[in-house]
Specification:
This protein is 15% helix and 39% strand. By secondary structure, the protein is mainly beta. The relative contact order is 0.13.
Length: 337
């Protein structure tokens, strides 16, 4: 939970005015002792001083201008990300009233913003809202639990009969904390987002004759597509990403992000579409992945395929005769550790 700071500089003005009022009262008492005839004047002046000090110390706000909310400056502290990190364009900040009598208040904040909130205590959740991939739930009720997640992926270059695939999330920045909005002015809340996604890099060597390959997508199962600040990663699914070809190195690569990894069976699959053919290459990478879960850093999956795409090209593919590619032949490739 990120600490928050609430500053109230108006209190110094209040202390000064009270001291000034006290000095005026002492001065008046000395003068009254010299002339009791001025008793009435003393009473009037004393009352004026007390009323003035009281109004100043209460941070008076004209009732006609009060709409039930007070100004609060929200500031994003990016100091924990390091110089090389790229800040998101905008953060969605959701204020959850703790008393539960009001709905949450969502606002957009870049580096800082002045927002207007009712007085009270709040749970605050912030995440980067600069992606068309990320979705959020749990913001309709003050009792809700915020959950950021990704939807199902499109089916480009994927077989339609082997399960459901999900998009991987963008790099996600988030923070969850509590704060009090207790003053009519000068409320200030500082939020310190952190990266809550984890990087995964996949390297597949020894993929020959990539000139015959038109596209490759990769999938990895046992990864989480949901994030909530209140529980550990869950809802483990199969995510899919596009892959890049490197013909000169006979290498295929991909990198993506996940919210967590399960200590279960992990299968890496390559869905290759080529010149008149399709092919699935499968790798059991359970050991590679599970050995890196506890490290907290980037997960690197490096395997060797020993696959020659030219061997999958049909004889009629170069003659212009239509070749059916509805089937997805699958090949399980053992790892050479």
């Amino acid at each position: 939970i990120t600490n928050f700071k609430l500053e109230t500089p108006m209190k110094y003005k209040s202390i000064f005015l009270r001291l000034l009022a006290f000095a005026c009262v002492i001065d008046l008492l000395v003068k009254v002792r010299r002339s009791m005839a001025k008793r009435l004047t003393f009473t009037v002046m004393l009352s004026a001083v007390i009323i003035s000090g009281t109004l100043s110390s209460c941070q008076y706000k004209d009732f006609d201008d009060y709409d039930g909310t007070v100004s609060t400056m929200v500031v994003m502290d990016w100091s924990g990300l390091g110089r090389s990190s790229v800040k998101p364009e905008v953060m969605k900040v959701v204020f959850y009233p703790i008393n539960g009598s009001m709905h949450p208040f969502p606002v957009n904040v870049k580096d800082s913003a002045m927002v207007y909130l009712p007085l009270g205590q709040y749970r605050i959740f912030a995440y980067n809202d600069d992606s068309s991939i990320l979705r959020i739930s749990g913001t309709d009720s003050s009792f809700g639990t915020p959950v950021v997640y990704t939807d199902k992926a499109d089916n480009r270059g994927l077989p339609g009969n082997i399960g459901t695939f999900y998009d991987y999330p963008n790099v996600t920045y988030a923070t969850y904390t509590g704060a009090a909005v207790m003053n009519f002015t000068d409320n200030r809340i500082i939020l310190k987002p952190e990266v809550v996604t984890r990087d995964v890099e996949v390297i597949v060597d020894s993929v020959l004759n990539q000139k015959d390959i038109s596209s490759v997508r990769m999938s990895l199962d046992g990864v989480s597509n949901t994030y909530t600040p209140l529980t550990a990663p869950k809802n483990f699914v199969t995510m899919v990403s596009d892959a890049g070809l490197s013909p000169s190195e006979n290498r295929i690569t991909s990198s993506f992000h996940v919210y967590g990894l399960d200590r279960s069976v992990h299968t890496l699959q390559l869905f290759i579409t080529g010149n008149g053919f399709k092919r699935i290459l499968s790798f059991d990478v359970t050991g590679l992945v599970n050995d890196q879960i506890g490290s907290g850093g980037k997960v690197i999956i490096h395997v060797t395929a020993g696959y020659d795409a030219e061997k999958d090209v049909p004889v009629d593919a170069t003659s212009g005769i239509g070749v059916g590619v509805d089937d997805w032949p699958s090949e399980d490739i053992p790892l050479n550790l």
